[in-house]
């Protein structure tokens, strides 16, 4: 795959940004909307602006992927959408109402599955189900838990505790726990990044299967462009920080179900992969050169070192002027 190396975004890079962005028919009202949101950490002189001027519409039923480099603020964005952190300015709404904190209608699956070690697979999932569906009977809740354990293929391990599970199995429990709460919006913050390639591939298929069966709205954060194209309807790049903003949306437009092996030979897939990757590389280089200009070019003084001829006797080396 060719990756652009120029220090600026050129017309070639920008030509790959889909023109269809302006020509698409008007979209329905978003289920979640992010309006001019900025977020930073710290205060005063030590404040670091992470996100700046973020605008995003999450449409009902869509699968949206946000891709970006490490440290650009992806987790911060997921936490803002989940209501775990508050924006410094701007507003996030769900169904037109401001998001003021976490809620069961927005389920977040973390990068690092946080399961309670003393509870079994069933116990970890039941904890959330019992809290959200308090009006249901005990039998109803138990059947519901078992259905989601089955959905992620863990029925055989339902009585095991987290230390008896592999990393992939733990991530499945974490996914099932969030899915079982039936959130309207599923927020996935790099849920597969800690998994090996094979497990990751199986989990990608499972997430897609569940998303299609449950007809949820899904936003997945990832640093893997191939993964984003495989799962998403639209891909939005997060530009590098500080004060990161979002780039233009890329419409994926590949038929579902998508076959990974076939995708590698699909021209649209290859074009999209180059387009998104080239965009990200170009914006990162532009951000780096901006940082260098801000800091001023520092000329490094190199020491004047001459090589020593090691064939000389040791005494001669010790007496040498360098
Ligand atoms: N609670 C916090 N306090 C101070 N700084 C923070 C906090 N959380 C995140 N940051 C900083 O904000 C920036 C963005 O972090 P964030 O975790 O959102 O990025 P990311 O894109 O998810 O990174 P990664 O892909 O490596 O997980 C980083 O510079 C990070 O050090």
From TrEMBL:
Main location: membrane
Annotated ABC transporter domain residues: 32-265
KW Cell inner membrane (keyword) present: no
Keywords for this protein: ATP-binding, Cell membrane, Hydrolase, Membrane, Nucleotide-binding, Transport
Gene Ontology MF term list: ATP binding; ATP hydrolysis activity; nitrate transmembrane transporter activity
Enzyme Commission (EC) number: 3.6.3.-
Keyword Transport: yes
PANTHER family (UniProt xref): ALIPHATIC SULFONATES IMPORT ATP-BINDING PROTEIN SSUB, TAURINE IMPORT ATP-BINDING PROTEIN-RELATED
Protein name: Bicarbonate transport ATP-binding protein CmpD
Organism: Crateriforma conspicua
Gene: cmpD_2
